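To whoever picks this up:

The nightly regression suite flagged Nucleoside hydrolase as changed. Nothing in the input moved, so I suspect the structure step. Input below, exactly as stored in the fixture:
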Amino acid sequence: MGTKLIIDTDPGVDDAFAIALAATSAEVELLGVTTVFGNVPLARTTANARRLLQLCGRSDVPVAAGAARPLVYQATRRLGGVHGSDGLSGRADTLPEATRPLEDSDAVSLLVSLLDAADEPVAIAPIGPLTNIAALLAAHPGIRSKISRIVLMGGGVARGNTTAVAEFNIWADPEAARRVITEDEVPCVMVPLDLTHQCAVDDVWLGKLGGSGPLGRTLETLTSDYRAHYRRVLGYDGMVLHDAVAVAEAIRPGLLHTETYPVTVDTSAGPARGMTLVDRRAVPLEAAGREVEVAVDTDVDELRNFVLSRLAGGR
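Regenerated output under the current build:
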C-alpha cells in the first residue's frame, strides 16, 4: 500500500467528497476516520461519516466519535448551516446504513491505537475543527513520532468565511487550532480558503461527476444546499471542494505548492477571533508563530482532474 492516512472530519458536503476521494484511491491505506462537531452536531457528523464509508464500500474502515464541543468556549452562535440541516443537503438518510458498528472507543483512543499499530508514520488529514487533534497531541505527546505530517483544511491568508477574517474550522475552536498549528512540533501543511476557492468546480464538472456512475451520481445529489450557497458566493453554479483539496495533498504530496511562513491563531475574544495570522514579511522582526507550510498555489486543472478521476472510478 501507499500513503497511510487517517481522516478527522465533520461531514459536510466537501468532507463527503474528501472521504470518498481517500476511500477510492488505490494508493491510500485509509486506517480510520474520526469525527468531530462542526458543520452539524457530533451525532450527525458521525452518522454521515459511517454512511459515506458504506457508500464507498469501505466497511473495513473503523469510525470513532470525538469531541462534541470546543476545548474551551462554546460557540456564541449556531455552527454550520451552509451544508443543510443534516450536513448533506437534507439527503443524508438516503445513503446506505452502515454495517460496521461505531467503535466503542473515542476518537483520541482510536487515533492512538491506529498510530501505535502502524509500521511507519501516518498522515492525518483534519478537515473539521481541530479539537480531536489538539486533545491527542496534548494527552499523548509521545505519539508525535508516529505522525508523518498533518495536512489540515483551515484558515485563510487574506480572507475569512465565517467572519471577515476567520475560516470556519479555525473559528469553531481557535484554542485547539492554536495548539495544533502554532504550538506543536508535528510537521503541518495548512490548506487555506485562498487556495481552495481557486479550485472551485462548476456545473459542468459536477455534471461529469453525476454521470460517471453510482458513486459520482450519489455524491452529486448531496450538493444542492451547498451549491445554493456557493451560487451567491461564486456568482455561478458551482461549489468549493475545500476539504477534498487538503485530502488530495495528503494522498499525493506536492500536488499543492506550499511556502513556509510563521503562523499563529488569534484566540482573543475580539472581532479577529479565529483568524490565522500568516506572516509573509521577508524578514519578520519578531517571532510570529511556528513556521508552517501554507498551500498557496496548484495546477488547478490537474487538481480538479485528479479529484474527478478518483470519484468517477479511475484508480
